[in-house]
Amino acid sequence: MRTLTPALRGDVITGIAVTLVGAVYYIATFWIQETKNIVTPRTFPAIVGIALIVLGLFLIGQAVYRSRKLAEVVPAGAASASGGDGGEVADSGATDDVVGDEPAGVVLDAPEEPKSKQVVLQFALFFVYLGILIPVGFLLSTAAFLMTMTSIYAPNRWIRNLIFSVLFSVIIYVAFVFGLAVYLPVGILG
Questions:
Q1: 9-12 contacts: CB < 8 A, separation 24 or more?
Q2: Cα 32 from Cα 45, distance rounded (Å)
Q3: Distances (CA, A) of 72 to 58, 59, 129
């Protein structure tokens, strides 16, 4: 029986949560009133719900896949430490791809997984974003939300975060309002 590392277990739990939120979000679209247009008010929320379900299932699958790969690598690493033949083959193939002076058999650490406090903060920020979307408006609330979210992961790159947040918000707004004729909340700008 394979056990998941704490990081992979967190991915599975997050994937389940995202899948459930997507399912509830998709089911809620059935209460949106239909129109006779090709693109109805239900279309975009349904796409978001389906995308959340797919992404949640993908996150679960990725965690399970990484867990299986980790279970396969651990016995191979144990064999190389004891001087088995299987470890020598794996080491000789791995050293061809290694750049730099790293000795054979060195395992590089993966990037740090998001901390649970950051995940909780992100969910809280998302719900704040949902709460201010209509009164503040799409452009300002989305730009502020994206600026805050990107600053969590890259706090020293605030200029890049600001440019991305503003450009993304404006492009999405223009695409929906002028391209699809779907009006987004203007809030205090209107």
A1: 9/63, 10/113, 10/116, 10/119, 11/59, 11/60, 11/62, 11/63, 12/59, 12/60, 12/63, 12/64
A2: 9
A3: 21, 20, 42
Per-residue pLDDT tens over the stretch 145-157: 888 888 887 778 8
Cα 115 → chain centroid: 14
Residue owning tokens 């978001």: 48
Is the pTM value of this prediction over 0.85?
A: no
Structure tokens at 78: 């144990």
Backbone angles phi, psi at 65, to 5 degrees: -65, -45
pLDDT of residue 76: 52
The Cα–Cα gap between 129 and 137 comes to 10
Mean pLDDT of the region 3-21? 82
**For the chain, how many helices (H) and strands (E)?**
6, 0
The tokens 């990081």 sit on which residue? 7
